[in-house]
Amino acid sequence: MSFPVEMKPITSIASQPIATDQEEALMNEICITVNEDDMAIGSRTKRDCHLMDNIDKGLLHRAFSVLLFNKKGEFLLTQRASSKVTFPNYYTNACCSHPLFTPLEKEEKDGLGVRRAAQRKLFQELGIEPNTITLEDIKYITRILYKSPSSGLWGEHELDYILIVHKDVELKPNPNEVRHAVFLGKDDLRPFLEGWPISPWFQLIHDRFLYNYWDNLNNLEKFKDHKTIHKFV
Fold first, then answer.
1. What is the DSSP letter of 206?
2. Domain range annotation of the chain
3. pLDDT for 106-150, tens place per residue?
4. What digits encode the pLDDT tens for the residues 148-203?
5. What is the rounded CA–CA span in Å between residue 78 and residue 95?
6. Measuring CA to CA, which residue among 26, 187, 193 is closest to residue 98?
7. Which residues contact 55 (CB under 8 A, 6 or more apart)?
8. Half-sphere exposure of residue 128, counting CA atoms within 13 Å on the CB side?
9. In 3D, which of 140, 186, 154, 161 has the Cα closest to residue 80?
10. Are 2 and 172 in contact (CB under 8 A)?
11. Is 101 within 8 Å of 32 (Cβ atoms)?
């Protein structure tokens, strides 16, 4: 069983794609390159980091995935915009992006730089004002390492920080980033996803971590593991 987007099963916001140069501009952002132990080793453009030729040579960059739950315990699922270079129109978690090679976002203690990047991207992609989700609201849980080709020239090879936000927020999705956003209850997520493409990082999170986190939103401390890098390559 699957829900067409138009049924809007819980709380749903649809964005209309528009012509934009934003994705091209974002491809020139400077990402943090790392080794498989998450040691920063340099910087490359977002374009460089997502070219399969470079990925096949081992280029790896730091990233993050935000899992956002509201106070009713519903999970925010988003559909990536059609203009995305990798995995356009795929369903995924609330926000997925990269810290930039800047002093503020390179800071590693307690994942502070990554959490700053998440706060920035939650505003850029979903219109969530930074003063409504503080750095303290963004919980750094653990890290995963994965690699996946997308289509043609592009792919993903990321050391991905899993971050969780459990808070009510107002969404104003940026149509250049998000085609559709919907809050779903635990019993609704799997049926909704049937028949839809799912981003590879969210598939890993969904299959291995998500429901344990979902069952323990008020006790996430026990899942914090800043030593392990779960490697799926």
1. I
2. 5-232
3. 999 999 999 999 999 999 999 999 999 999 999 999 999 999 999
4. 999 889 999 999 999 999 999 999 999 999 999 999 999 999 999 998 999 999 99
5. 8
6. 26
7. 49, 147, 149, 155, 156, 157
8. 24
9. 154
10. no
11. yes
Judged on CB neighbours under 10 Å (0-12, 13-18, 19+), 24 is: exposed
In whole angstroms, give the CA distance from residue 148 to residue 200. Answer: 7
Residue closest to 52 by CA, chosen among 146, 200, 151, 158: 151
Residues whose CB falls within 8 Å of the CB of residue 70, separated by 6 or more in sequence, listed in order: 76, 166, 167, 168, 169, 183
Number of Cβ within 10 Å of residue 233's Cβ equals 10
Instruction: Give the distance from CA 51 to its chain's centroid.
Output: 19
| DSSP character string of 38-87 | --EEEEEEHHHHHBHHHHHTT--EEEEEEEEE-TTSPEEEEEE-TT-SSS
Which of the following is catalytic: 105, 125, 158, 177? 158
Catalytic residue among 96, 105, 156, 177: 96
Active site residue 96: yes
> What is the C-alpha to C-alpha distance for residues 14 and 12, in angstroms, rounded to an integer?
7
**DSSP for residue 106:** H
Highest CATH level, class, for 5-232 = alpha beta
